[in-house]
Write a structure and sequence with these properties.
single chain, 68 residues
Length: 68
């Protein structure tokens, strides 16, 4: 298993999680949002934060969703 850590811009740990071998977190950007996603027991989970042109929001959990 591999341990991953989500870190804020100040380097503070937001969340850590363990993934099985072969599973990897993904980072995606859409418009002004940045997502960090990982796959866990058949669901995608993760966090999102938004940029309003000047400041970043805090990380918030996204609703888990199935890839199908």
């Amino acid at each position: 298993d591999i341990r991953y850590y989500l870190l804020g811009s100040d380097g503070a740990e937001i969340e850590s999680f363990t993934l099985d071998q072969g599973e990897r977190p993904a980072v995606a950007a859409y418009q002004n949002d940045v997502y960090v996603l990982y796959y866990d027991q058949g669901l995608f989970k993760g966090k999102v934060r938004s940029f309003d042109g000047q400041n970043w929001s805090t990380w918030t959990n996204i609703q888990s969703f199935s890839p199908t």
